[in-house]
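User: Can you write out an input/output pair for a complex, sequences first and structure second?

Assistant: Here is one pair. Inputs:
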Amino acid sequence: MSDVRPIPMQTFRRLPGYHRYLKELAGQGVETIAAVAIAKEMKLHEVQVRKDLAAVSVSGGRPRMGFRVEELLRSIEHTLGYDNVSEALLVGVGQLGRALMTYEGFEQLGLRILAGFDCDPAVAGTEVGGKPVLPMEKFCDFCRRTQVHLGILAVPGETAQQVCDLMVGCGILAIWNFAPVHLTVPAHILVEDENMALSLALLSQNLKRQMEQGDLF
Amino acid sequence: MSDVRPIPMQTFRRLPGYHRYLKELAGQGVETIAAVAIAKEMKLHEVQVRKDLAAVSVSGGRPRMGFRVEELLRSIEHTLGYDNVSEALLVGVGQLGRALMTYEGFEQLGLRILAGFDCDPAVAGTEVGGKPVLPMEKFCDFCRRTQVHLGILAVPGETAQQVCDLMVGCGILAIWNFAPVHLTVPAHILVEDENMALSLALLSQNLKRQMEQGDLF
DNA sequence: TAGATTGTTAATCGATTAACAATC
DNA sequence: TAGATTGTTAATCGATTAACAATC
């Protein structure tokens, strides 16, 4: 129910999940929801949900009634920064890069990709998702002129470190890394790996465990 | 140093990061590495890294020498299940679906996508990444025949729940969900959201905080 | 041997859960 | 009012960090 106290990290991590579910409810015209109901649907502990919601909601919930769906949505969006547009430049307009440039949901998450960059001359000069694709040579100039500090790295693993270094040299401060390699960066640069390997491992390990159990009974 | 005790969840989550860095070291011909060195490069606490490695490594590290890179890699791969191939079916051969079907790194992570499915007749019948794309009508039959239990959901949000229900009806037990919506599933079905919204939020919030701090000093 | 480095035990911290009081 | 539901305080649990012993 505050805007002052910092949100616990684990709560923050669960927020996108709540947001998705509340979006669904809002779409169905549901106006209020009890923490218990959210917990049941999302397979979380009831008290955990109450605490999470209390940590972000401005007005809090009301006994007998629960939380107002729209208010919760706004609160979560604010906490996650969806209402604060970040501009980004993407490097590597391959299959994945195209998918990211085309994806329309990013605007809703507060991300605006201004342009893509690629060293392949066949790709440079085209448009993807209504955004220009420029040759790699123009990256630094573009980056400095637009004062963008967020870079999306979608090149193959082999060139990722090299492109990363270039980004850092041009003033990029935070890198969203889709390349499946470890990036070495100076201390003040933020790197967030989009770690598909992790979700995949979590999923397949759980599946394996469940099927082994299933076999036993 | 065990294979018996369960790996703490937080350790498990860090494993893909170690794996990537160790891969890089192995590629450079480095044979042994100290936990301290890993900690420094990955910006983690030294003791945490020691504990993590101790939890997965079969033979453990040796004083003065550190851990053997290759042995660590094998141990982590085993823990994450990379050495255990899971077969999967993908539904939704759009930009993202194509990127996933084309991505060659999955084999290394123990994932084999057998086929893609799409309801667009223009896409069905083609091949992507050397794998067949079949019409949606063939999904259930294919799924049952091949006994595949892992489904990759890469359709737009609007049709995701519907496709999800179909998957569950055909025997899929675990769903890797790339659609940006909440999925409602029966209790025994596993869903792992590939939550790009989260990494993006983490990154842009940290960037914001860092830039605000930077402005003050 | 001395020193680097691992491994372990204990202390701290943060997150989850349980119990219960407050409120509409 | 009674009951559903929130919010809070205390107890438990798990993860991180600190201190130190073990070992090559």
